[in-house]
Amino acid sequence: MRKLLLILLIGFIFSAPKLYYETPLENMDFETARVFLKEFLMEVNMRVLGEEEASKKFAIFYACNLTYGEKILSKFPYFGTLAPCRVYLYEKNGKVFVGFINIDTLLKFFGEFMDKEAVETFKKAQRDLLKVVEELKKF
Amino acid sequence: MLRKIFIVILILVVIVPIVLYFYIKSNALDLFFYNVEVEGKSFNQTVELLKKNLIKEGLGVVKVLKISKAIRRRGNKDFPNYTVILSCKVKGYEKVLEEVPFMANLLPCSVAIYEKEGKVYVSVLHQRPIIKIFRRELSEESKRLVLKTYNRLIKVINEVAQR
Questions:
Q1: What is the DSSP annotation of A104-121?
Q2: CB contact, 8 Å: A42 with chain B?
């Protein structure tokens, strides 16, 4: 009962838009976005370990920065449940979107369980991903 | 009388949510992560048995990421054993992702197996809080699929974790 109540409250507190970061890529078709997303991820040292084609217009990139992983996983191993980082791309109603987990939201709730180095590492990862989006939007 | 009503409203609307918010924060790890200690098996035995049982349960194995091996190759020889198995690529998962793309963090799922202070653990995300967060966007069918998949996943993990 207690757990159910807490789950309901989590659902209330975490409103859906905050748990993820998603943005449209104007003037870019799905296949072009797919090619360049992979390129730009590699430019920020996020190695693309694999790509999953969930459907013709939905791709998941499994990306990992081992330097960050090394700093976080040795001390806070449960975050491996979010690894590798999913950066997803999809087309809906003719528009292409890119999205990933909102690390700022994660840090709001889990930051106090981590040390300064881990928090800073997570923030760097968020900055890297936002840089990738910025590059995609410049196209 | 008015004063009493005001105090009750203040407690319900302000104080209770604040207390509950901090309570949730302090229990956030337990609520978002399912973490179990493995008994009587080494790290490698746990990984192999999980792979075998995930396939047997029909959840499949998409990829096995030997994270500790990769990190040690880069020079950190003391990095503890750590592997992530990507699984749960179940029939119908594409529809879940169409409804809520963020669910790509749950399907396929990441099963983390790691060693800490001589003990072996298996961790996965808890699916229920995330289903609650996206309760309006997800269809009933998708919710059922995610719940059913994770029930099977937890069953596999619990069976492997037992001696």
A1: HHHHHHHGGGS-HHHHHH
A2: no
Cβ–Cβ gap B79/A70 under 8 Å = yes
Element (H, E) at B45: helix B43-56
Q: What is the rounded average pLDDT of the residues B36-63?
A: 97
Express each pLDDT in B90-108 by its tens digit: 999 999 999 999 999 999 9
Please give the tally of structural domains in chain B.
1
| Residues ≥6 apart with Cβ < 8 Å to B50 | B85, B111, B113, B122, B156, B157, B160
ipTM: 0.87
Neighbours of B52 (CB within 10 A): 13
Residue with tokens 């690529």: B89
At the fourth CATH level, the homologous superfamily of domain A19-138 is TT1751-like domain (3.30.310.70)
Query: Is A53 within 8 Å of chain B by CB?
Result: no
Collect all residues with Cβ–Cβ distance below 8 Å to B125 and sequence separation of at least 6: A81, A82, B32, B33, B34, B105, B106, B109, B110
Domain span at residue B99 reads 34-161
The CA distance from B163 to B152, in Å, is: 19
Phi, psi (5° rounding) for residue A52? -115, 125
Distance from CA of B124 to the nearest CA of A (A): 5
